[in-house]
Amino acid sequence: MYNPKFSSRTLIVPAILLLLLLTAAAVFSENEDADDLGEIDELIAIDDEQENGENSQPAAAHFESGESGKKTEVLSRAQRVVLELNGDTAKRAIEENEYVLVLGYAPWCGGSAELMPRFAEAANVLKGLGSRVLLAKIDGDRYSKAASSIEIRGFPTLLLFVNGSSRPYTGGFSSEEIVLWTRKKTGAPVVGISSVADAKEFLKQHSTYAVGLFDKFEGPDYGEFVKSAAADNEVQFIETSRAELAKVLYPVGTPTKPFFGLVKSEPEHYTSFDGKFSSDEILHFLENNRFPLVTVMTELNSAKVYSSTNRQQVYVFGEDDDLQKLLKPLQEIAKKFKSQMMFVAVDIREENLAKPFLTLFGLEDSEDTVVVSFDYNSNSKYLLESDITSRNIEEFCTGLVQGTMEPYYKSQTIPDNKNVSVLTVVGKTFDELVLNNPANVVLEGHTPWCITCEATTKHVEKLAKHFKGLDNLVFARIDASTNEHPKLQVEDYPTLLFYPANDKSNPIKLSTKSNLKDLAALINKNLKTQEDATKDEL
Ligand SMILES: *[C@@H]1O[C@H](CO)[C@@H](O)[C@H](O)[C@H]1NC(C)=O
Ligand SMILES: *[C@@H]1O[C@H](CO)[C@@H](O)[C@H](O)[C@H]1NC(C)=O
Fold this sequence. Notes:
Its main location: endoplasmic reticulum. Residues 1-29 form the signal peptide. InterPro entries: Thioredoxin-like_sf, Thioredoxin_domain. By secondary structure, the protein is of the alpha/beta class. 39% of the residues lie in helices and 18% in strands. The strands form four sheets. It has a five-stranded mixed sheet with strand order 1-3-2-4-5, sandwiched between helices. The chain starts with 6 loop residues before the first helix and ends with a helix.
């Protein structure tokens, strides 16, 4: 569900998920007698201890905080709408029902404890809406065999089964988001609005939605609209055929049928779709417009920002005050590049959010404003290296769009290599000292925190002394954790590479486990191969 192509993003995603789960954003509906278990039949094995036991306590308490105790009471009733599966019932439940949304949990797992009450609440709301989906949960720790037979392998896991086949869950984790996603994927992707009262009620509960206006709810345009509603994961789609209702739901311009528009709570409130009605185009339109011109990143929306498939993303990191000042000019720039890139502002003091990105540029200690960009197509990153002015930011964006910006590679500052036996190479000097060096190069890739690197470093120093005086052989080392180069191939530490003088693109890996003597012999052998190859060429 995420798009974690940069490795340190992968690391932060679980943390963000947890934070998401910790933040309640629930509207509770009490309009229902949850004790009426209806058609949920003999499959049910409600374990009341489970329902009201320790596992659900922290989350229930969380819901209660700042509110009356009533929610907790409703919550424990609501939890019974969720079918508890066990070793005997799991497979049958997913085989015998058209739609089953299953939550795999473990009693010891904090993420599960946070998710369970939201899931229960979603079950309650879905039932109230007359949804055909069955919500079920299974203790995957206790019934591990049954859980893995229905593809539950981690906790918490949400999976939707449609006639027995699983689909990954790609929605959000508040109860509202669970409801929204589940309806989209189980045959109710669009909500119909047929009266002004309906429209007003809807507006009370939603600030972001997509509205379709059609003469008739049939035909190819309408078909594409419904298809995109089901494919999208998070925007509520509504439909109406009456112009006076469209006026309430989309009160700008005069929508002509067929019409599709997006409504948001941020600036750029109303955006109408002017493409051809195809689900691809509609989804593309949503992707480009569902975020505000400039998204201010928070713990809450970060997962959505990460999962955005918008190819090019521009991030501005800065102190809150500086960001506030930059926001207006940034919005102006964002308007110009709207369908091409997404703009995100991050408070540099929000370390959880800012550091993982800044580390990718070696700027984790920066206190100044930093502007960077990621291109998820080419997996490249860019840094604005001139002063941070709106003019320079705009030029940076133009360069990105036109493909004239050079990708950024991390580099330490260029060291003084005078009078050393082993050269220190950094990202910026890798070309000069290794690739374009006419000599053979033995390069040690290390990091400051790798303990086993020390022995190799000592070996390299001794080898440098041993081979001193050979002008066709150079020894060098690079801290590969803080220096990057597209042609630097260091995957683990320590790494020893022999770059033959006549073929720098194919370095030979030398075993760092060899003793000094074997290493010297290996280097001699490679030098010899080099000489022979050179002779052959002559
Ligand atoms: C599930 O199976 C039933 C019976 O074969 C079928 O009528 C229904 O359309 C299927 N549902 C989906 C979503 O494919
Ligand atoms: C340069 O290296 C030589 C021999 O290793 C040493 O004697 C000399 O002091 C060094 N000079 C400097 C400036 O470090």
